[in-house]
Queue: 2 jobs
Job 1
Amino acid sequence: MTIPSAPEDVRTGTLRTVGSGAAPELSSAQKLMIFVLSMSLFGLSNVILEIIPDVSVGPVEVDVSYFVFVPLTMVALFSPFWAALGAPLGEIVFTDLLMGDFSGLAEVEGFIQMFLALYVAGSLIRNPRNRGQLTFAAIMVVTIDKVLSAAVDLTKVFIGVEDAELVEGLPQSVLLLEGIGFGVDVIISGIIFGALPAIWLVPALHGKIEPLLGMRPRVPGEPIPGSAPRQGWFVLVAAALTVASFFFAFLEAWDVEVGAVDSDFRDTYGDGFLWVSVAALVLLLAVALAIARRKGKQR
Amino acid sequence: MARKHRDVLTVEWVKLELIRTAYASRGGLFARMDPRVVVLWYLVLAIVPWLTHNITVLALLFALGVVSVVLARVGPLVLGLFVIGLGFDIVYTAVASLFFGGGWETLAALGMLNLKLGAVSMFSMAAFVSLDPEKLSDALLAFRAPKLLAFGVSYGYRMLPILMEEFITVFDGHRLRSAPVERPGLFGWRVVVRVAKTAVRCFYPIFLNTAVNVRTTIEALETKGFTYGAPDARALRLGTLRVAGIDWAVCAATAVLLTGAVLAGQAWPMFR
């Protein structure tokens, strides 16, 4: 397969656009198309990865965590916001729900991390035919995603999960494993299955796939099409989401941390305390059912 | 028709198994329930294991998870992946902690965590394997999840078999048209590289095909009135949902069993 010759990318210092002088507006149907396409393709790539067995060298897993080039192609060619929103959902819908390793609220952490990584990477790409930008963006996706989750994991071990002193060897082992794992991920997921395929695929699809969705191809140097709504707020929300992703991750950690305090707690209140929580949940379920029932009757 | 287990590990089998999972065609207890109740049931049982450190209670919840997986008739592929995943997780943390001088103490701590995670994943398997795409998206709509999410779930599950089929066709086409690797090399690394390259190349036609499919689907939906703001679509879709006797029975049984587990935990507490 040949790489189509890149058109001239002459930079004159101003942002060039075709037509009205602004980035093209997307209709809501087009946003939905980008979202769904990104979701389906990333989901498909994850299902394919699920079939390939993971290779472990000792405790370090040498595997492809995801085909980064698939969502990267989407964010490079289309609106990064909608493409980045769709991809992690595809992962959850296709693999996690289907394969039964849906981890509940911890999924939210993964979703937010992947969304931020893809959105940032997509915003970095100004020219979808520039190999340097594509390589950089591919590595950025893996870096942002993995650094965020590694930070969460490490903090969990040092603060939350256990008394670090009590469990000898755990902090070091986790630190080392995370470090090695990160390096392996950048090389395998970021470069071999990220940058290298993207350098071929993005220029090959550029100008061919957009008309199929009724859109105009991106012109090098113009602002990102259909960027995030309300940009000032978006930065704030993104920052809040990062914190939120930590929060969701810590839901797991808290649990064991409560365990450290728990002995006191349990002495004071007795195991009867556990009753309260179970009773509350059962009550919640009953109320929810009753409401559902009543609503059902109203119709 | 009984499935033969000789040809278990083929791509075709994996695909069929995925489709069966996605469409919940195995039947089972939860498949007959109201999807909203199944989702609520899952939410409660996914949270309960996090509230306790009593190993007795956790073990009983784990057992309840096993029972619900059996009742939901979870298929062998999903179950196998889960068991392998859990097993590897334990082995790998054990090796890591022993290697760095940690003792069996570490293992006990991680073992409890795995017991919890295992129970939660089994409940999620039981619940989501039993919900076909239509039901799951109805349930999401009923809980006022974003329409984009409900649509995505429904569309994703529906398209998955088609996408898989397409990918395999393209992959086989590539394989047929290319000469086999001349020398496999050490551990057959050339074969691995070839397969990886082919898999990546397949995405070019897949991207284009899927783009066309997506556009067709969405435009078809528009002509049928599925747009962001259609007000009565929700009522129309949720009109058929009914909470019946079986739902109450399952909820009651779950409540009794949960109470039993907590009582047993009080009678024979076991902490690490």
Job 2
Amino acid sequence: MIEYRIDKRSGVATYMQIIQQTRQALRLGLLVPGDRLPTAREVVEATAVNPNTVLKAYRELEREGLVEAKRGLGTFVRRSLATAQTAPGSPLRLELAAWMDRAHHAGLSREDVDALYGDVREERYPTGEGQF
Amino acid sequence: MDSALSAHRLVKSYRGKRALDGCEFAVPEGAVTALVGPNGAGKSTLLALAAGLLKPSSGELRVFGERPTGRTHPQVGYLAQNRPLYGRLTVAETLRLGRAFNQRWAQRRAVQVLDQAEVPLDARVHTLSEGARTQVGIALALGREPDLLLLDEPLSALDPLARDETLRLLMGEVADRGMTLVMSSHLLSDLHDVCDHLVLLIGGAVRLTGPIEDLLAEHRVLVGPASRAASVDGVVQASSTERQATLLVRGESVPEGWAGEQPTLEALVLGYLRAARAR
């Protein structure tokens, strides 16, 4: 089960934050097929958001074929977004971890790392290609 | 979707002065609506009409398809802004009144609300803080297990923690029972995180209403050369410096030479409020 962290100051719509965090968890293998997403009730209890917003996010994820609502039971993961490359222990991930160790060693702050990573990502993955 | 609450050419006058002047809106079942507007815009009058405590001067108001008939609809809960409670009763006695006056009464739910807010049941109501009185009022309203809950300025007296807990509780009712919720506030920031519908009331008239997401998608904030501001269509509100104009427009197109983006809800509401003031 995952827990959503809703940042009300981020400027990103709440339902979009739920969609993004779900995709992220699917990508990282934190959610796998068969897992149940928290019910709207559970999300509301944790973060005081509008349950209609949660359901709207789930409908969008369902439209994308990632999850499936089962009446009276909840919403379940249908498809994973994790690949061998993004799972824990994968070579790419280990390389990135090693790179980050070197960055840390070189005295880079968290913001420095984010900026550097973001910059290179922009270069290699210009926005407009793919999504999120 | 059916409307839980709707108004058509709704007018309410007090001694010849119009508090509501031709209101049109519809709130679908299950929606969480922010009723927003400056002080004196008619928000409390509108909620009191919906609660059946006032009669329209003309036009109509419907609650689950029916016109209120001089008493509160059995499916409706209402908390007035002045929190009408008997100061000399204890909280427990207040709940007992609630049980006596209502055919449908969920004592457990009412007590749960007060437990969560840490309001002692044996305290006399007049000894409670304004925030705690609000919680008693909400407990009374939720004890009716309403399908439509009308709350007049529910958050104004609450500290941030109580505010968060109250919203959580109300959102829980929406999640569990599909309750329709209408909350008024003169502060949009109180409500904009949790609402999916908006009714913006200014000077007794509804200036803007609908699903918040649609409203945002239908508007743009345009920034561009002040010299060409006059040629832009659909301007709701404009402000400008010598060279640069910032326009709130209704419409999705962005004219050439302008930068445009969707407004935030706050910018949208402020734009309409400023436009009304300038008129």
